[in-house]
Structure formats: structure tokens, C-alpha cells
Fold DoxX family protein.
Amino acid sequence: MRDLRSLPPIGLSLYRIVIGFLMTCHGASTLTGFPVKPYGGHTLSLTEWPDGVAGLLQLAFGLLVMLGLATRPAAIVLSGTMAYAYFSVHQKHALLPMANGGEQAALFSWSFLLIAIIGAGPLALDALLARSRSQDEGHVARVARRLTSRNTPAAPGMD
């Protein structure tokens, strides 16, 4: 069995994937009615302020968070979007989320803030790209060392 210390980073990645998937579905539902009809029963245009624009942000940035690509900036945008939704839509009805229907917005806002702070975890496209870049840089450095060692003249007395 693998070391238990490897589980939290994988758990973080799974958390990010699920939260990003849920937000992507929320945005897709708002704009297209897929995978289910939105809460209001009708889809919104991209040009409707603020709900249509929010749906586009939820769809696009939710997908980025789910994939782990530009995760921190995308999570910050989504955290702010959900905080805006909470304070502009829900807070005016009552103070507490349980009374104003804003539990979902509050949970999403804090979830994305957590993802922005902690990062994407190891199961992310950002991590894959970083590993690929470091391997490429290591390969270039090895080739450069080989080339310079062949072309460097021997020091006097070292023949």
C-alpha cells in the first residue's frame, strides 16, 4: 500500500475536479439547458446582465478549474462571482444563507477560494505541463553539457 501521506494531494485534486465539474454543469445549464433545465426553467442569453455573463463565467472557468488549467486565477474569478451572487441576490432576503437560499453560492464561493489558496493538486494539466517543461529543460541541459564537454579543450597538463 502506498504511503498515506500521498492521499491529501490526490484528495485535493479530486475535490477540485468535482467542484469544477459542478460549476461547469451549473453554467451549461444556465446557458443551454444541458444537462438539465436551469432552476428558473428557461435558459439565458450570454448578453443578459448579470445572469447570462455569470453563466458564461461559470461554464468557462468551471471547466478550467475541473481540468486544472490556470486553476488559481480561474478559482479566484469564480469565488468572486459566487460572492457577488450571494450578496446581490440572496443577502437582501435574509441575513443567514439557510434563510435566504444562498447556501449554494456561499459554499461555491468558499470552495473556490480554498482551491485558489491551496492550488490544483497533482492531478492537473498545470502539473502535467510543469513536469513536461522540467523534463524538457533537463534534457536540454544534458545535451548542452555533452556538447560543451566535447568542445572544451583540455587544460594544460591534463592530456
Summary: The chain has a mean pLDDT of 87.
